[in-house]
Amino acid sequence: MAHRRGGPGRWDREKRERSRSVGLLLRRLLGYLGNFKRIVAVAAVLSLIGTLFSVIDPLVLRWAIDEVFGATTTFTILLSLVVLYLVLKVLSWILNSSNTWILASAQAGLVQEVQADVYDHLVDADLSYHKSEESGNVTSRVTSDTDALGIGIQAIVDFSSQILLIAGTFVLLWTTSPSIALTSMVVIPGVLFIAAMFGTVGQRIMLASRKAYGRVSGRIAEDLSGVQIAKAFNREDELADELEELNEEAYHHGFRFMMLMSAMQPMMRAIGQLGVAAVLFVGGSLVAGTTSVLTVGELFLGVMLVNRFMWPILGLAMMATQVQASLAAMDRISDVLESKRAITDSPDAVPLKPDSDGIRFENVTFSYVDGKDVLKGVTFEIETGKTVAVVGHTGAGKTTVAALINRFYDPDTGRILIGDQDLRDVELDSLHGNLSLIPQIPYLFDGTITENIRYGNPEATDDEIKEICTLIGANEFIEVLADGYDTIVMENGKNLSAGQRQMITIARTMLADPKILILDEATSRLDAYSEALVQEAQEILFSDRTTMVIAHRLTTIAHASKILVFEDGAIVERGTHEELLEKDGVFRRLYQSYYAHQGIDKLTEELATIAEEEVSRCGGRKATPAVPGGMNPQQRGMASILGGSGQHTERITEMRDQLPPELIEEIRDNGGQMTPEMRERIRQALEDGAEE
Amino acid sequence: MQEDNDTTGRSSAFRYMLGGLARNPWVILGALVLTVISALVMALPNVILGQAINILTTAGFTTDFINLVIEIAVLALIYMGMYFVVGYAWAVVTLRWERDARQDFFEALQEFSMTFHDVIDSKRLLSVAMQDINWVRLSLNPALRNLTYSIASFGITALFLMAYDLTPGLTGFLTLGGFPIPVFTVIMIIGTPLYLWFAYRYANAVEPVRRSRSEQMETLTSVSQGVFRGIEVVRAFGKENSEKEKFQNVSQEYKELVTQEGRLAAFYIPALVLIGMTTLAFFYGGYAVLAGVLDVGTLTSVLSLLLSLQGFNFMLPRMLLMLRGGYVNAQRIVKILNWEDPMEEPLEEATDVDWRNDIVFDNVSFKYISENGNNDHYALKNFSIRIPAGSRVALIGGPGGGKSTVLKLLLRLYDPNDGQVTVDGVDLRNVRTSTVRDHVGLVEQDIFLFRMTVKENIAFGNTDASQEEVVEAAKRAQAHEFIEELPKGYDSMIGERGMTLSGGQRQRLAIARAIIQDPQILLLDDSVSAVDAQTEYKLRQALDEVMKGRTSVTVTQRLRTLLESDLVIMVDKGELVAAGCHEDLLKTSKEYRMIFEKLPGAEAVLKQVPVQGGVQ
To answer: Is the model's pLDDT at A692 over the cut of 80?
Structure first.
């Protein structure tokens, strides 16, 4: 095989073995069918009667031919035979049509039911399922797999009528003349040969062709998303050449498949004709002779039936492939149906109490994979209204903490409380209504920018959305976009910069107005200037909210009332920024590696060396994707989320010190409303400080 | 949209479709002739059957009879060979067309300016490139191929039946007012068009349903994909139930369409027409035999000819549908290919531009084109600046301020709506885009790497680069060390398992790519980089290296870069706010001072700079 480039391994991966027994899968499939029992039963009866009629109608022709041939008959008899023929034909047309009509809704209904079932399961499936599969694959569980099921159902329903057609026809042939019946069987090997060829070689060619086609598609997709780079480097021609190679290969495979397809039809027809010749020969010898054992009508019947006999056999053989494909689809769907469900409300779950606030971890241990604890006995508390910063290397467990607070997972041991309520006893809806997470990697849905922001709060008016955006400094760039707030976000925001995407997710969360806020490096993709605006807005809107920040910038660390330093899933240091720096421990090294270097001073080799040591001390985790729970950083080519531009801590504290405490209180008391007058006072205070 | 370019759009979609056949007219003509002959060859056995039965009833099981049986068998083989050739010819012509159409389409997409790619979703482009072109091909082969065969079969059957009408006994068997009625002929002449007309009507009825069905499928796919990709967001906002409801609505609608399409297939009228035709022929023929004017052999021929047409009941409507659908697909393709690109290449290119000379933005205004065409927000407005030859320029400003637009105009990814961008006094509009991009290089913000080896990605800037040159560039970009540590070094494939590169590493690869390209003007979009100190250190070394000896424009928020630049340009809302060196700007520009205040570590610098007039 010239085209086995991928090596033998590729085949095995594609043709995954079914993991469940045929019986189980069929039962499950028929289980869905069970909801349409009555319709299917009616359809089956109709189909059987219809088939019976179409088996009989050639018989009428035979009678007529024999009648007229002997010229012994009358016009009336001929007329009644013609009418009988017409009635049979029309009846079978009506029956078959009704059958199709009825089954159409049952089949579509079944597919829809499976779709909804699979979809619901997927939405509720444990996050680990989604992490382990690509979203494209997950989607095809809902779309193409359910479609394959529909085709399989059709095949199973057709199966009985095809069998009846073959059996009925053969019985008819046999009663007419056993010799003709036997002769007609000469077509069977030919038909089986074609079916077998199709099932083996054909399948292989088709698979190879589909793969080659997939490679072309993949290449075009990639080239289109990188078109700006291709243009920037003048590489359009080379990319076109590379595509041409793949295209040529796809043509080659497509051609083979096409030839097979175009060969099948003439072969079937030719085999049918050969069958006719054989029946004619055998039948002829029986008709002739002194002791004629066959009439001309019967001979005609034999000739007619050969063709009728042949196509259902081919159909049956082909059906096997279809049923197989749909069983494979059912198998994949079963994976979903049996997958671990995400956490659901316990029976005695209650809503989060209005006065429940503040987060407490009590000796929490957690692992994604058994035996590999990501968090080890973590205990900490975020008091109501306070901001706590979490720092640590990639893989230290920071994002896991955020995921646990959202109850995407439950801890293996220990417990997590909000106020005095264990998360396990809180209704998920109310939990998620009160708490918001801004994830590391912004995700935007297809739709307008307004729709994306409104996701946080469906009741929000356009004005409120604009207000939020103005506050965080997003309004400026949104207004300049081609269609402003109505700009369609495509492909997770290819028309936006990473920072802009992040701004939109921030606006979304701020609009949701949660009681508790979790920021997982939520501003890592913003430039420092925009980040300052966001932080200002956060200060205004959320200054009194309980906040956990996975920190990547020094400003947040300095703002926090407490810093938790994570290493290898445990908290190794905790305290305020100043306390920790004085300690000269883990935090100080982290600080020097990640936070200190983007200030005004020239970055020295010494600082770089410290960072190198620190990073390699932690096993060079940088290269591995975040935590198992983290989204695939390759996705948008933004693997680096760690660290951030830092600042000299003294400056920050200085700055805060310069603000009169009563002013800060005033802002907080005002519940977010910062008047221009206050802003002016802040600026004044800062400038006074600077001039001293 | 489809209305305004009605005539041209239609004719060109039609031409596009037939373009595949028109390229090899003789092959297709030959195939058509062969198609007709093979339809004849396939119909003949029905006629021979009648003759054989006649011989059988008159002379018995003679050699003549046996010869006829052999004839049938031989015809079957001839047919098989012949129709195989037909299939081959069609396959070659149409599949080659498909291959080339896809290639041409892709190349056309690449040629379009960035405006095109901004406006049109690449998912749609991909599906046109793959599915739509495929469907056009399907509409030619098998649809058109099978249709010609079906029509030929109907025609040949009609001819045979007409011939039977002319047999001595049958002429004048039935007369109307002394005028003989050729009944078989009448059956065929009325029946065939009726059959085809109903089949066409069926295809017409199904087509819109089929189309909304596939559109609904697209919606269904994108709805579920969106939710699964953003499942964390869905969960975090507790939206599971509303998403389920949304999906339920979409999938219910899909179900309705599937049902509708399935039901249309029931009560297929053409089948009824054929039943009528057969019954009539049966009645008339039987009566004629009874009257002794027709032999029983001919009757069986007539019946079996008509019965074999039944085989088309299933195929014909599907093929008509495909043909119709293919036309719609061709329209979609042609519409994209006919997209009018606002950017035109100069007919005659300005030569000898000194790319090391000054870059000037002269009163440039630019806005992005929106899909509905009513964008009145300028991304850049009356923007003028002179960038002296060989300088290091820093470009700063808020999001949406116009920074990246400046870079894109310099790369001539777009042309300004007003004003001009010149290098060495030459308007970039007078230079071919490929020439511009030979001399202007880019290190973009979200580094895009292709699924190729590391080496190929670096050599993307210059395909002819040798291994040594690639390594040299990687070394200068501080990338050599980590590349060596990759599983297969320079031959590691980007995007494969275990090949997750950090942001800093990707950026250094992109710098190496730019070093290999060696442009006279270098554009860097370096607005965000959150990396550890060591990476940062290396990155800065790499940047210093790549900026040597060329004019560079860097979008940045890095304090250090601002300090080290020869010229800082500040833009806001598409307008130039301030330009000058860092020290001057601090003194003269209120806005710059404001932005600078927000930057990390700026306090220290601000303290040293006394405020001059204009700033409070």
So the answer is: no
Considering only CB atoms, which chain A residues are within 8 Å of B65? Answer: 284, 288
Chain-centre distance of CA B189, in angstroms? 44
Q: Which residues of chain B, if any, have pLDDT below 70?
A: 1-11, 370-375, 496-500, 527-533, 598-605, 608-616
Q: Which two tokens stand for residue B424?
A: 């060495």
CATH of region B6-207+281-337: 1.20.1560.10
Q: Which residue in A650, A660, A647 sits closest to A686, CA to CA?
A: A660
CA–CA separation, B310 and B300 (whole Å): 16
pLDDT in tens, A313-366: 878 877 777 788 888 888 888 888 888 777 878 888 888 888 888 899 999 999
Question: Can you tell me the distance from the alpha carbon of A516 to that of A665, in angstroms, rounded to the nearest whole number?
Answer: 20
Q: Do residues B516 and B459 touch, judged by C-beta distance below 8 A?
A: yes
Residue A11: pLDDT band by 50, 70, 90 thresholds? Answer: very low
Contact A550, A521 (CB under 8 A): yes
Q: What is the pLDDT of residue B613?
A: 47
ipTM of the complex: 0.82
The verdict on B373 touching A (C-beta cutoff 8 Å) is no
Residue range A133-147, pLDDT digits in tens: 777 778 888 888 888
- Among A249-258, A335-344, A635-644, B204-213, name the one with the lowest average pLDDT: A635-644
Q: How many Cβ pairs closer than 8 A exist between chain A and B?
A: 548
- Cβ–Cβ under 8 Å, residues A43 and A157: yes
Residue type, B301: S
Three-class SS of residue A130?
A: helix
| Pair of tokens at residue A470 | 């103005």
**DSSP secondary structure letters along B227-285:** HHHTHHHHHHTT-HHHHHHHHHHHHHHHHHHHHHHHHHHSS-HHHHHHHHHHHHHHHHH
A643 closest CA partner among A413, A398, A408, A355: A398
Q: Does residue B590 sit at the A interface (CB-CB below 8 Å)?
A: no
pLDDT at A6 over 80: no
Q: Cβ of A287 and B607 within 8 Å?
A: no
| pLDDT given for residue B70 in this prediction | 95
Q: Which parts of A288-344 fold into alpha helices (H)?
A: 296-337
Orientation of helix A75-123 relative to helix A144-176, angle to 10°: 150
- pLDDT of A33-50, one tens digit each? 888 888 888 888 888 888
A244 vs B84, B103, B463: nearest CB:
B103
Of A238, A488, A500, the CB nearest to B399: A500
Residue among A350, A426, A359, A364 nearest A400 (CA): A364
Question: Which whole number is the average pLDDT over A27-35?
Answer: 83
Contact criterion met (CB below 8 Å) for B409 and B475: no
In this prediction, residues A487-495 reach a mean pLDDT of 76
pTM of the model: 0.78
Contact A690 B603 (CB under 8 A): yes
Q: Which residues of B touch A115 (CB under 8 A)?
A: 220, 251, 254
Nearest CA to CA, how far is A21 from chain B (Å)?
Answer: 29
Nearest to B286 among A82, A217, A222 (CB): A82
Spell out the residues 6+ positions from residue A329 whose beta carbon is closer than 8 angstroms to its own. Answer: A144, A145, A146, A148, A149, A152
Which position has the token pair 């922001």?
A453
Nearest CA-CA distance, residue B116 and chain A, Å: 11
What is the average pLDDT score of chain A?
A: 79
Q: In what order do the strands lie in the sheet with B567-572?
A: B440-443, B521-525, B551-555, B392-396, B567-572, B575-580
Which CATH architecture best describes the domain B359-580? 3-Layer(aba) Sandwich (3.40)
Q: Which two tokens stand for residue B169?
A: 């006994």
Tokens found for residue A35:
């909801």
